[in-house]
Amino acid sequence: MTMRQKFAIKVEGLAKSYGNLLAVDHISFHVEDHEIFGFLGPNGAGKTTTLRMLTGVLKPDEGKAEIMGHDISRESFYAKMAMGIVPEVANAYIDLSAWNNLMLIGELYGVPKQRRRGKASELLRMFELYERKDEKVKGFSKGMKQRLVLCMALINDPQILFLDEPTAGLDVQSARLIRNLIGELNEGGVAVFLTTHNIEEANQMCHRVAIINYGRIVVIDSPENLRQTFRSVQSVEVAFARPLGIETLRKIPGVDMVRKMGDKFRLYTDNQAKVIDNLVDYARAKNLQIITLSTLGPSLEDVFVKLTEDHEKL
Amino acid sequence: MKNYKVHNKLIHELKGIWVIAKKDIHIYYLKAPVLIFGIVFPCFLFLAFAFGREVDPASLIPGLIGMTLFFTASSVGPIIFPWETRGKTLERLVSCPVSIQSILLGDVLAGFLFGIGISLVPFLLGILGLGMNVDNYLILILAILLSALCFSSLGVLLSSPPTDNPSNVMMLSNLVRLPLIFISGIFIPIDQLPTGGQITSLFSPLSYTTDLLRHTLQGSHCYPIALDLLLLLVFTGVFLTFGIGLHKMSLAKRI
User: Fold this and answer.
1) Total CB pairs under 8 A between chain A and B
2) Are B220 and B189 in contact (CB under 8 A)?
3) What is the rounded CA–CA span in Å between residue A255 and residue B208?
4) Which residues sit opposite A290 in a β-bridge?
5) What is the layout of strands, in order, in the sheet containing A216-221?
6) I need a labelling partner for A204 at 20 to 30 A (CA). Which of A13, B57, B111, B231 fits?
7) Is the CB of A255 inside 8 Å of chain B's CB atoms?
8) What does the alpha-carbon distance between residue B152 and residue A11 come to, in Å, rounded to a whole number?
């Protein structure tokens, strides 16, 4: 580790435009060494453009980004040597075998032959692909391709791993395998930068998350802190023995918003105790039987929706 | 310490060029249709011009070698970038610690090796089948090496339009390459072309290849040898400079 290295990623005033569209608007943040950092945002928010600038695929128009202390624009070679990348679309060569894909990437990262072969065998076994290592990738399922791409990202023993929607569209087994492995890698000291649509995934895996919308970072904090901050989106979930109109529940004092969630209703409020009292009074008065009643803190999804909605209104 | 780092990086980039070339040969060149087309197409054109004309078939061999070099070294290069753009593998390569120059030079090296390999077929046909003699092996080798490099560089220049559709680039590629074979002394020596043809032939790198090959295989030539070699180098430099520059400019549109 060099003296100047303080963060796995350090971004200052990074900006990128496509014509008149400002895709990334002068964002700044840092990712600690050994941290799993989630980058959340709706489609077109600037997540992938940011990731492409951080990985040296796109050149920023303004600002700078350092990866493990190396400027990605001026010292891209050393910055790239420190990273592994799992893009949104599995981009292994479909006309090469899994083994040859790993050898190709290993050679491009300058991994010595013996080390490359040993590491490739280890990774293919870990991701349950070893038995099919000599088959062309064109015959692989989506989950297998994504696992192979993760193997390719790890062949050089990266210090930081960039993942762009790594579990999007995967079967449960592949998604769980990948999530578990990301956790294990992080425990082993690898920093992780993860873009995802999956709020629950970010909630479970990330030490901190940044929410980006319209190219600007709206907030950066730990998932738990974000939930605590947004107490106004806490809720009461209730189910009744017989069907009930949503409009009736909206009229209960203290309720800000009501959502129907299957056979239950979720009542959003900034005062859960008051809403529970009013709800019980209402049920007694109307002779309604309450089947379940529970309080919920704000989910990360609630925080995400509120932040991106608020930002749209600005 | 800084010099050591620069040296290490340079070695890594050189290895990267070789790795990219190996990948290209494995994925794009060593396919039966590419190999067959590389041999059959120039032979087909050669036969079309040889039959029915009172010419010594051996006199057409320099043109056949030149044409084979031209079509093979520049054949696959134009479609590699569109294919890689479509398959998203270009993003994978660009994110690796190799420069875009090395990626493109790897493509050039693959076309260079393929062109030389395939052009051995008409060369051996001329030597073994038609009893052709080589006057100067050094010039022959230089002609083949420089021409393969030049045509392979042309292939990389032709691949610079930022499209993910290989057929678009193939159309452009054929539009540029096909007319060149008729003005470059392949079938008719340059000094026998009409004045307009002779002037136009100056702008085709293939003219200098055929001139060199005619010199060493037939003993006749139109331009000084040194000028042929120099102009092939100049064309190579121009193709590479523009090719790399245009690719750098269009890279963001591809990804």
Assistant:
1) 64
2) yes
3) 85
4) A240
5) A83-86, A160-164, A191-196, A36-40, A208-213, A216-221
6) A13
7) no
8) 40
Q: What is the pLDDT of residues A162-194, one digit of tens each?
A: 999 888 877 888 888 888 889 999 999 999 999
ipTM computed for the complex: 0.88
Measured between CB atoms, does A95 come within 8 Å of chain B? yes
Pick from B97, B99, B255: which is nearest to A109 by CB? B97
Q: Does B247 touch chain A (CB under 8 A)?
A: no
Query: What is the residue extent of each domain of chain B?
Result: 8-254
Q: What is the pTM of this model?
A: 0.84
For residue A306, pLDDT beyond 80: no
pLDDT tens sequence across B69-89:
999 999 899 999 999 999 999
pLDDT attached to residue B128: 86
pLDDT block averages, 10 residues each, chain B of length 255: 72 96 94 82 75 74 90 92 93 94 97 94 86 90 96 95 90 90 85 88 94 90 93 97 95 86
Identity of the amino acid at A181: L
In chain A, where the domains are located: 7-227, 231-297
CATH number of A7-227: 3.40.50.300
How many helices (H) and strands (E) are present in chain B, helices listed first?
Answer: 11, 0
Instruction: Spell out the CATH class of A231-297.
Output: alpha beta
Task: Look at the block and give the residue holding tokens 């490099």.
Answer: B149
| Contacts within 8 Å (CB) and 24+ apart, A166-171 | A166/A86, A166/A194, A166/A196, A167/A196, A167/A198, A167/A201, A168/A88, A168/A196, A168/A197, A168/A198, A169/A142, A170/A142, A170/A143, A170/A146, A171/A143
**Which tokens in the block code for residue A251?**
């009229």
Closest Cα partner for A25 from A13, A10, A34? A13
